[in-house]
Amino acid sequence: ASMSPDATKPSHWCSVAYWEHRTRVGRLYAVYDQAVSIFYDLPQGSGFCLGQLNLEQRSESVRRTRSKIGFGILLSKEPDGVWAYNRGEHPIFVNSPTLDAPGGRALVVRKVPPGYSIKVFDFERSGLLQHGPEPDAADGPYDPNSVRISFAKGWGPCYSRQFITSCPCWLEILLNNHR
């Protein structure tokens, strides 16, 4: 029996959405390789180039923040989870269900300085969370298999921006391996 071309194609382990405030810009970017660079300008290498995504109207705060993305992040799938390495010159801010304290009701947003990395999603911990109650998510639908990363601007209880949709430039990482 012959196999269809799609049958041999490996499945993507995540999709990346780029947002400017409440507006998704461009299509979902499917990631098949174990690691992907997400950056602003083409000279930074191969991967997901945010500078190529066009939008008719951009606010000044979005333009300023986009200019700070630079080398961006390296997102990699490792045996223990998903890691983000901040390759830029400005901090990134990260939130995921596996960063929150078990049973915690407060939103946990971690600041990651330039040159540092963080495990943004823990596979083992995610499996334990699948059976628990859904936390209160005041800033939109709750997805236990997603990670949100904002460039240069933080959000949450410690910031003037309470919700990620108030951040000028951010990513939503939708993980497929636990769906």
In short:
With 179 residues, this protein is mainly beta. It contains three helices and eleven strands, in the order αββββαβββββαββ.
The rough form would be described as: globular
The proportion of residues forming helix, as a percent range, comes to 10-25%
**What is the CATH C level class, in words?**
Mainly Beta
SSE arrangement, N to C: HEEEEHEEEEEHEE
Which second-level CATH architecture applies?
Answer: Sandwich
Low-pLDDT parts are none
CATH topology: Tumour Suppressor Smad4
Count the beta strands: 11
Mean pLDDT value:
86
**How many distinct helices?**
3
Count structural domains: 1
Structural class: mainly beta
GO cellular component, one term: heteromeric SMAD protein complex
Protein name: MH2 domain-containing protein
Domain MH2: 13-179
GO molecular function: I-SMAD binding; transcription regulator inhibitor activity
Question: What does this protein look like?
Answer:
With 179 residues, this protein is mostly beta strands. It has a single domain, classed as Tumour Suppressor Smad4, CATH 2.60.200.10. It has helices at residues 5-8, 60-66, 123-129; strands at 14-20, 23-31, 35-39, 48-49, 73-78, 81-86, 92-95, 110-112, 117-122, 146-151, 170-175. The protein has a six-stranded antiparallel β-sheet. A hairpin with a 2-residue loop joins strand 1 (14-20) and strand 2 (23-31). The longest helix is centred in the middle third of the chain and has 7 residues, at 60-66. The model has no long low-confidence stretch (mean pLDDT 86). It comes from Muntiacus reevesi (Reeves' muntjac). Residues 13-179 form the MH2 domain. InterPro entries: Dwarfin, SMAD-like_dom_sf, SMAD_dom_Dwarfin-type, SMAD_FHA_dom_sf. Keywords: Transcription, Transcription regulation, Ubl conjugation.
